Amino acid sequence: MSASNIDRLLAVALILVGATAIFLSQDFRGDAGFFPTAMGCLLILASLILLAQSVLRTSPAQEPEEPFEGPRFLAWVGMAVLLFILVWQVDFYLSVFLFIVLSYVLLAKKGVIFSITLAAIFTIVLFIGFDLLLNVPTPSKLQAFFNTF
User: In this protein, which residues make up the domain named DUF1468 (predicted)?
Assistant: First the structure.
C-alpha cells in the first residue's frame, strides 16, 4: 500500500474519531463538552488537511508499494473498539492505561516495562488534567463500585 493510500485511510479513520468525540460530548453537562468538541474539530481539520495533501501529491508513481499489514491494523481497530466499550462499562482511566500498554506491547513491539511506564505517566497526566484541574467527570462504573464500600 502506498504512503498516499495509508495517509488517506488514516485521515478517514481520524475524521471518524473526531466526529465520535464531538457526538459523545454533546451530552456532557455544562462546559464539560467544550474540550472534546474543540479537540474533535481540530482533529477533523488536521485530518482533512492530510487527506487533501495525499490527494494532491503530484508523483504517486514514485511512491514504493509497501505491504499492508492487515492483521496488525485489524488488531488495532479491535483494541480501539474494546477501549470504547471498556470506557463506558468499566473505567476511563483503566481502559486508557490498558489500551496504551497493549498498543505498545503488541503493535509497536516495545518492552513491557516501557509500555507500562509510558501508560502510567499518560494516565496520571490525564487524571490530573481532567479530574483535578478541570474537575471533568469521566465514565467509571469501577469508581461507583468502590464507592459502595
Answer: 11-139
pLDDT in tens, 54-101: 788 755 555 556 666 777 778 878 888 888 888 778 888 888 898 888
> Distances in Å between the alpha carbon of 137 and those of 12, 35, 64, 134, 143?
29, 13, 47, 9, 11
Q: Please say whether the beta carbons of 35 and 98 come within 8 A.
A: no
pTM, whole model, 2 decimals? 0.54
For residue 43, the SS3 value is: helix
How does DSSP assign 77-112, residue by residue? HHHHHHHHHHHHHTBHHHHHHHHHHHIIIIIS---H
Instruction: Tell me the one-letter amino acid at 79.
Output: M
Most distant CA pair in the chain, distance = 64
Higher-confidence residue of 95 and 31: namely: 95
Pairwise CA distance, residues 13 & 36, whole Å:
17
